[in-house]
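Let's practice the habit of predicting before peeking. Look at the sequence and jot down your guess about where helices and strands might fall. Then scroll down.
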Amino acid sequence: MNLRSILLFLTLFSCLTAVVGVYLFYQQSVNSNIEKEEQSADTTASLIAVKLDTAIERYIRASQTLASLPDIVSTMSESREQGYLKSKYLLYQFCDKGQASLCYLLKPNGLTVVDNSGPDQSNSLEGNNYSFRPYFTQALKRGDYVYAALGTVTKRRGLYFSTRIENEHSSILGVAVIKVPMESLESEIHNLEGTAVLVSPDGVVFSSSDKSWEMCSLWPIPEARMNEIVASRQFGIDPIASLGFHEEIKEQRLYSEKYKETFIVGQSELKTMPGWQLLYLNQAPEFYWLDDTVLPLVSLMFLLASAASLMLYKVGTRDLKFLKEAEQELINSEERLRQLAELTNEGVLIHKDGIILDTNKASAEIFDYPEEYLIGKEIWSFMAEECISTAHHHMSIGYERPYDLEGKRRGGEIFPMEVCARDSAIKGEKVRVCCIRDLSQSNSLVIDRLNFFIEDAEKSGSLFAVVYIDLDNFKRFNDSLGHQFGDKLLTSATRRLRGGLEDQDSLLRHGGDEFIILLQNFGDTRELYKAVERLHNVFNEEFVIDQYGVSLSATFGISVYPQHGDKAIGLLQNAELAMYRCREIGNQGYFEYYSEEMGRNAGYKLEMEQYLRKALENEELLLNYQPVYAYQDGEINLVSAEVLVRWNSKELGCVGPDKFIPIAENTGLIIEIGNWIIQTACQQGVEWIANGYRAFRLAINISPRQLRQYDFINVLQGILSDTGYPAGQLCLEITEGILIEDDQYARYILKQIKELGISLAIDDFGTGYSSLSYLKHYPFDLLKIDRAFVADLDVDKSHNQLVKACILMAHGLNMKVVAEGVETADQLKFLADHSCDYYQGYYLNRPMPAQSFEELIK
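Done guessing? Here is the structure:
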């Protein structure tokens, strides 16, 4: 082989080696860029999922709070109109402040009993049955549940947060439901380069940054499964169209037949909604892979070193351009993540083994440090010492649910914060992403301003007033005219209020439709009255918004420093208490000053509740028996006795049932007390029967809350079995409020009571809003005319006609009639002349202890 051949061989070998090296380098660059795209997609999906989980967790807690409110529990246990209206107002307020579209309560049979609909009731769900919805059945089974669905009435997407309502004895009373529009939770998936989608376990897109994808399936759903989905009505009643993706995600790739494109996919499962995923899809970049025909062409050109050099130069140039594009794409991806973190008001910290790698502006504001100072520091140094071990433990086990810790600011101030963290990966390294919410900021501006006014008043010896303002029924404007209209109305109301203030006064927003005004420089109460009246009068004129004329009123509560308190919290609470008292006494739309009596009443009720909880244990409750007589042809015969509970408190003395029974109802103590009354009365009845006394019936009052105990029938059966008291000699008296509610559950329970052989009486008839026509739906044996009608027989002739009508109609329904409160001979004669069956009242006999009653029946 001559030298020329050797040189040619060496040249060819050198060129071939160079080309192979360039090709391998190019391949490595492509793979590196793809890996960065995949990591970016995963990180984006993970971060969005963390924020969505945090928001969902907050609404879960809101639903749990709603279900545990005493007024809600009381309403689901009772059936009085007052409880219904109070719960409707609470749901109204809860929905408004929580940015929810619907709040409603379901009975254990799925029937909607109260919702947050406005006064016109145009969109009311009351009366609808949602027992077919999984959020109802799952809440009964698990306690609470999150369910995504298209509203059957509203046709709008939303998340349903349902929580089982229980009383203090864990008796199931129903289900509380909050529906949050999906639009309220979608802020995190917009303004992204790719497409973020929230998908169900079947692949149905429930939320997407590309609206054309919503309510479609990513991949075809089998016909049998499609029929089940349509039958469930979770996503409407029509079959779901497919976007044409392949069902299996391979190596973070998803191909769509419809779009003829391949997408890089980031996946993250939602912890709050098992089976649901947050996917982030970005179009896979087009890479210019070397064509198979290039290598032969290059081989032919190896003879010319200049051609090989030129080819290397071109490949290198193109590779350099590709690397720059890949680097720019990585910078853009990081910038998108940075913008996403900066958009939120919550702090975001990314750390590796406790060392902070990155943060956002909100974190710096929370801890009162510059952003650059936080990076590289140990995250534990920004926590209270006693909380560090908890945070360490949660990091070690990968804990992902929100939990509370105490943070530490630059000045050493300790403050409460909520942390929600999740493990993730950046550039192949395991990191932990933490979202932090400062729990001390709520109400802090109002308190700070109040403290400033208090300090100024202490120095000058002057007075100032706290005016708590709540706009009346404001939510109806948002519901009927939209939130944009409501925002404009709030702005207009704010301007009017500010126009009624002096320069030294302050106006602060306290909530969605609440304001706090701090008034200074008034000499006496007369001047304060004029100032408050001037503010109140700004609502006298109609508000014109977008050519709509609307009337808006507000209720004011006022407390004065230092007369009504010398601390910020106390002044604010007293002003709020005065505002609610103003509404309670029927003065909505006006104003009320705080008084010491309001505070005493609130304190007295709380004190009474504490003592009442120990009344049974301390044997302070006792039973009295009031005889009920039949009167015919001048002869009076005892036929039954009404059992009445009395409380002889060691601390409070004798407390009337009108005082402690409402507290027992509101707190749920009525169930324990009521069961004790039935047990004790039946035991006493058995003793009288054993002594050979005459047979008569015992009548016991039952509260609606007792009636709605899930095991009330079992309780009755157990008492009758344990005591041996005959069911035929027991009568349960139910208040008229149950007729107003007229629900199937009440009818079912009353029917079961009748099947035990127990008699039923409708008590205090005439005091509610029901009519006699409702009685035919219930298996009552007796009707008790309220004492208010009997007392006025001597003075109001219209009551004479009402009583006669009650007796005639009750007899027409085969019911006996008992007249309560008979206190004169004339009343007794009138009732007897009109065929009343039984009589009860002081004229005949007063309530008496068991021993005295025993002397009567011997």
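How did you do? The chain is about 45% helix and 25% strand.
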